[in-house]
Amino acid sequence: MTSPRPDIVIRASAGTGKTYQLASRFLQLLDADVAPESILAATFTRKAAGEILERILLTLARAAVDDEKRAELASAIGSPQLTSERCRELLSKLTHRLHRLQVGTLDSFFAKLASSFSLELGLPPGWRIAETLEEKRLRADAVQALLEAETDDELVRLLRLLTKGTTSRTVSDLIDQTVRDCGEVALETDPAAWAKVPRPEPPSFAELQRSRQQLEELCDDSSRTNKRLQTAIAKDLAAAERDQWEELLKQGILKNLLAGNRTYYSKELDPQTLAVYEPILDQAKRLTLHRLSVQTEGTRELLDKFDREFRELQRRQGECSFSDVARALAEWSDLPDETNHSSGSLAVRLDSRMSHLLLDEFQDTSPLQWSVLRPFAEQVARKSSATKRAAQKNLFGDGGLPPSFFCVGDVKQAIYGWRGGDARIFDTLLKHLPKLTSQELAKSFRSAQPIIDTVNTVFQKMTRHPKLERLAAPIESWCTAFPKHTTAKSELAGFVQLRTVAKCADGESQSDVTLEAAADLIADLATKHPTRSIGVLTRSNDAVAKLIFELHHRNVPASEEGGHPLTDSVAVRLLLSLLTLSDHPGNSIARFHVATSPLGPAFQFVDFRNDTAAAQLAESLRRRLLCDGYGPCLAEWSKLLADHGSSRDRVRLEQLVKLADGFQPSATLRPSDFVEFVREERVADPSGDRIRVMTVHQAKGLQFDIV
User: Which of 192, 529, 603, 697 is most open to solvent, judged by the fewest CB atoms within 10 Å of its CB?
Assistant: First the structure.
């Protein structure tokens, strides 16, 4: 075969064969007698990792028995002499070392590495990755420990800083929400950065009172004839009287002034109005900045206190999250060079095991993940340029081949910024690894010509959009860099339609009207095309749930991509009420639900007002769960509902039993923990696979006849 391609970064648009390119690179290395376990092929989801491994194995298997497929593979990997026997040999080599292959997610790779260096990384002895429910429990315990450790006065001070003095949530809920929103950011940033928000002196009470009086005088001035302006002033006065000065910056006159616009509805603001509003603008800005500064520092202080409690609980229970593992690896690999290159350092140890990096969906890499990968990538890039003599001496242990770097991604598909992904890392790769060769793929092997034409039209002409002037610079940059897409499926028929929905009537929600119209369209398409798969994409999980409801209401079977909690079944919700009653016999809602259902007579509990009967039933249920386990108990109780629900309910009940069996090893003495687990765990509904509803994020890499 020819020598492997150089270190390369591929910018591959959707449907252009990213997985094909990565699998071909893997097989090219394999054919060069590279040890399979020395190749890291990493992506971001287990599903994508499974697809990569499946592609590798199937490609080899097909090439071993099909001359045409073998010729395609030979061309793809640059090995014209590839034979069927060689394909079988490589397939045997792979399958015999399947347990040692490093084809998986970055998270699993990091966890595997960390397990070999637990002591050096400072991880708890015998640590393990916490499940979602376990991590939630641990977070709740840490919040409780924080509340118990702080004095009442200190807690009141912190909460006032967090909430600007008012909140409608409980203390524990507020802290938990703050941790979920900002916890990871706090761990990855310098504490000093949280004190960078300017803190001007806030306006005095007298200043604010004077502004209210001036607004009132302006509002009451009968000589003013601009009704729109007077209405806006009246609205601002009402907000000022409620002390909502920050809200004024988001509406009407002050919003325009803040943007440097001295007009309102295209009319110049008169001197009298400006004389009143310009001081108010200054006061609102000072007040907002002061509150933001105080709130930011208070948030950091709270997060630091929480983190101390949380880390201590993690240490005691031996639990870590994937981000904890990545952070520990990043901090270790970021030590000074003299430590970094010692015999026990992370980079050197890894290099002895891993010589070839194949990274998929690189645009979704987070700074934390890249800080772990970067030392390896740099070492691989340095060694890949080693002399031929060094390679011939087999310094690298892989058939004489020097290490190599390969990554593929598409900044246009960088949709995971909300969980840390930063596409700018992809754009700066050539600076970090200057010897990389760059390649671009823009020919789709998935979509018909009308789809590609629409994509080109929309994304190459965004500069013409009349509503996007404020984003002119980034849009211009986007359009300039956007490659013209083509398709290898030009013979396929296709159809694209951009539709709008009528405005909602008074009292209606525009979102509801839009989703109902979409459900009508989907139902019509499902009837007209009964054999076609239909993918329905939304922007939010709430919209997914609403669409599923609307489609079921129209008797259209549909499922949520990635599954949906089993609580979408009436029968499952009934059993969850039974479990809630077992943990909280005073819960009147659960008692009423059970007593008025088929379970009531079965458990001799038909009067939900009977406290004694409720307590006795709860004790009996808890004893059964403790003695027999969740799986057997729910299997038996499900039979009581078998004749009372739909076929779909029966399927969901079976899935509930399987979920219960899986939960049993981590079961606690509280049935409500299992109830919470069921409400959060997503389980695929096999009844509606033809029509699948999902968010844009979940649709990545999927294919449908109709979208």
Answer: 192
